[in-house]
Structure formats: structure tokens, C-alpha cells
Specification:
By secondary structure, the chain is mostly helical. The protein folds into 2 domains: 63 residues, no CATH class; 66 residues, no CATH class. It is built from 8 helices and 2 strands; from the N terminus they run E-E-H-H-H-H-H-H-H-H. Strand 1 and strand 2 form a beta hairpin. Helix 6 crosses helix 8 and helix 7 packs across helix 8.
């Protein structure tokens, strides 16, 4: 799916078009935090069928207009990830140390891993990468000050 970047969040074109049809919904969308926008986009992108995706995209403006700031009944962290974290103490410790933004990025990155076995093998490595990235960023920031 093709995406357009808005507020540092890549917005799918179909969602952008749906929001553009209602100025108030678009304003409400723009008032969401990038994390809330990503939750909606992740919920839309998680649809397995095109019909489901279309229904979700078309429902976003009305959800926003009714006061919703997040998609209903959507688990940000998939059950497979919870299971993999439970089976790997090091990965679980790394997960706990991540910020909310890093956790969402990790979920997005690990979402491409389809099998539970592959996820179990990859999770610690991926989460360690987020922690190392944060350490490098902090180190650079300290040097600059």
C-alpha cells in the first residue's frame, strides 16, 4: 500500500482520501498524536481482506467525529508477541525498557515476522537493536552538549 507522510507518520493514500472528504475529520486526525495516528494506521493495515480494510478506512472519519481517539478493540501488541516475550526473559526485560514509541516501532518491525518460531528467534535481537540505538543517540546527545 502506498503511503504519504503527514506529521512524520506515513498515511496510506486511501485513508488520506477518506479524511480529505471531511474537513472536520481531517482536522481531528491532525490533532491526534503521531502514536494515535499510527494505531489507526496499524489497525487498518492489519486487515487481512481488502473489504475489511476498506470498511476500516471508511469508518475512521466517523470514529473521529464521534470522539474516538484510537481504534476500538484493537490490540497494539499482537498475542504472538506477548507469547514470544513470555518465552524469552531477556527479550521481556528489553521490552520493559523501551519507551511507548519504541514499542510501537518494534511491533511494526516485528509484524513482518509471520511464524511464531521465527518471532521467538528474532525478538531478542530486534529489541536489543532498539536499546542500542537509544544508547547511541544518548551518547551523541551528551557529546554535543
Amino acid at each position: 500500500m502506498s503511503h504519504v507522510s503527514t506529521n512524520a507518520v506515513a498515511v496510506p493514500l486511501d485513508l488520506k482520501r477518506a479524511l480529505a472528504r471531511n474537513k472536520r475529520a481531517l482536522m481531528l486526525w491532525q490533532s491526534l498524536t503521531p502514536l494515535a495516528q499510527r494505531d489507526f494506521i496499524s489497525w487498518i493495515d492489519s486487515a487481512k481482506q481488502a473489504v475489511t480494510r476498506k470498511k476500516r478506512v471508511e469508518s475512521v472519519p466517523s470514529r473521529l467525529l464521534s470522539g474516538k481517539r484510537r481504534p476500538c478493540c484493537y490490540a497494539v501488541v499482537p498475542m504472538e508477541l506477548y507469547k514470544a516475550l513470555g518465552a524469552n526473559a531477556k527479550a521481556k526485560a528489553l521490552w520493559v525498557s523501551l519507551s511507548a514509541s519504541e514499542k510501537r516501532d518494534a511491533v511494526e518491525q516485528l509484524g513482518a515476522v509471520r511464524s511464531a518460531d521465527a518471532l521467538s528467534r528474532q525478538i531478542e535481537k530486534e529489541l536489543q537493536g532498539f536499546v542500542m540505538k537509544r544508547r547511541v543517540t544518548l551518547s551523541i546527545t551528551k557529546r554535543a552538549s
